[in-house]
Automatic annotation (TrEMBL):
It is found in: Cell inner membrane; Cell membrane. Involved in formation of the rod shape of the cell. May also contribute to regulation of formation of penicillin-binding proteins. The lineage of its organism: Bacteria, Pseudomonadati, Pseudomonadota, Gammaproteobacteria, Lysobacterales. Keywords: Cell inner membrane, Cell membrane, Cell shape, Membrane, Transmembrane, Transmembrane helix. PROSITE patterns: PROKAR_LIPOPROTEIN. One of its GO terms (cellular component) is plasma membrane. It comes from the Bacteria. It holds the Pfam family MreD. This is Rod shape-determining protein MreD. The chain crosses the membrane at residues 7-24, 132-151. GO terms for biological process: regulation of cell shape. InterPro entries: Cell_shape_determining_MreD, MreD_proteobac. The keyword Membrane applies. It comes from Tahibacter soli.
Length: 163
């Protein structure tokens, strides 16, 4: 299998795994702490291979996430497109941050995602979320180094395997 095909499979597999992790049931106590897995994977691919993930694809993956979770159609699509836009805009800076600064930047991105989600809920007439709604970005910040290192390690193994 050539390198481009292997990278495509990794891209698709990481997004499918993120969708499955989004659907993973958790106890009611841990539910507010579930990271936004699809957002973390979109951040990774926007940082590492921006030509593979543009705004259109981020929007499309958000629509898939909306359908899978039964959310308001377009909610995650708008959020992921906004997330990808910010990451692509500041990609040259974010890539060279140390991991702890990247994690803080991911926290800021995920808090921004929550703000967009609150705005969508306000326009659709849904009630405002509780304080527990804001816990997930912190869990995403803690999960970011592991997500980044896992996908990056698999990509490196594919590169050495192809050589």
């Amino acid at each position: 299998m050539n390198r481009q095909r292997a990278n495509l499979w990794l891209f698709v597999a990481s997004l499918v795994l993120a969708c499955l992790l989004q659907l993973m049931p958790l106890p009611e106590l841990l539910l507010p702490f579930k990271p936004y897995w699809l957002g973390l994977v979109v951040i990774y691919w926007a940082l590492e291979e921006p030509e593979r993930l543009g705004l259109g694809r981020a929007f499309l993956f958000g629509l898939v996430g909306d359908v899978l979770q039964g959310d308001l159609l377009g909610d995650q699509a708008l959020r992921l497109a906004a997330l990808a836009f910010v990451v692509l805009r500041f990609r040259s800076r974010l890539r060279f941050f140390p991991m702890w600064q990247q994690a803080l930047a991911v926290l800021a991105l995920l808090v921004n995602d929550r703000v967009v989600s609150v705005m969508v809920r306000a326009f659709s007439g849904d009630p405002m979320p509780t304080a527990a709604f804001w816990y997930a970005p912190f869990a995403g910040m803690l999960a970011w180094p592991w997500v980044f290192l896992l996908i990056d390690d698999v990509r490196a193994r594919l590169r050495t395997h192809e050589s």
